[in-house]
Amino acid sequence: MLKGKSALITGSTSGIGLGIAQALAAQGCGIMMNGFGDAAAIERKRAEMAQTHGVAVCYNGADMSVPAEIGSLVADTAARLGGVDILVNCAGIQHTAAVEEFPPEKWDAIIAINLSSSFHTIHHALPYMKAAGWGRIVNIASVHGLVASAQKAAYVTAKHGLVGLTKVVALETAGLGITCNAICPGWTRTELIEPQIAARAQALGVELEEGGRDLLAEKQPSRQFVTIEQLGQVAVFLCSDAASQITGSPIPVDGGWTAQ
């Protein structure tokens, strides 16, 4: 469906970003991976994706907190894959603490990675999309882009901001063959929330899996984690022709969390 398109996915060396990269590669997209991690492990994932799906898969380790490196990442994607047709902003970090105890340096880091980096990637990618007359921007926000939870001031602020940025970009690109949407996942079993599951389990004096069930029961009516594979398929749909009139939309994938 997307054969021959090029896709840049930030934060794609693990978790949701890696799952979306794999889903887009399965549709025939050339992939630019980005993220941190062990160099050998990243290369193994890159090579496996390329071999499995028969597409070009590249890697650029740009630091998403450094605007100049983000500009170079987008330019490198265009040079190596022939354009930037699809941009998925998935890079993210987390820290939890009450506002009065929240370290300012953690606030700055979360805003830089979870919000500002998406502005910079979109800023640099849009000229390529406009020149091609086609583009898809998918911002991985969160249920916390729609509602708040205590102890997550920076994360909630960044994700609300990302939903706002999504709407502005959608308005500015309406009618140009470019869409911009935000996927808002609920609890998804990734490395990002494992510390929260562990903390919940420790507080309750229970095993890790019971901590996860308690976390789900508090917020997510389905009492099931969203899967990375499900999010990958939502991203594929938003990049398809069927979604060409869906733009500026925050799309909850949250087991009923925001229906409450």
Distance between the termini: 36 Å
- The CATH class of the largest domain: Alpha Beta
Taken together, the total number of domains comes to: 2
Number of helices, counting only DSSP H or I runs of 4 residues or more: 8
Unreliable runs, pLDDT <50, ≥5 residues? none
Quick check: average pLDDT?
A: 97
The helix fraction, in percent, is 40-55%
Task: Describe the fold and architecture.
The termini are far apart. Strand 4 (86-89), helix 4 (104-132) and strand 5 form a beta-alpha-beta unit. The chain has helices at 15-26, 39-53, 67-81, 104-132, 153-173, 194-204, 208-219, 228-239, and strands at 6-9, 30-33, 57-59, 86-89, 135-140, 178-185, 250-253. The longest helix is centred in the middle third of the chain and has 29 residues, at 104-132. The protein folds into two domains: 6-187 and 227-259, NAD(P)-binding Rossmann-like Domain (Rossmann fold), CATH 3.40.50.720; 189-225. It is globular. The chain contains eight helices and seven strands, in the order βαβαβαβαβαβαααβ. The chain is an alpha/beta fold and 260 residues long. It has a seven-stranded parallel sheet, with helices on both faces.
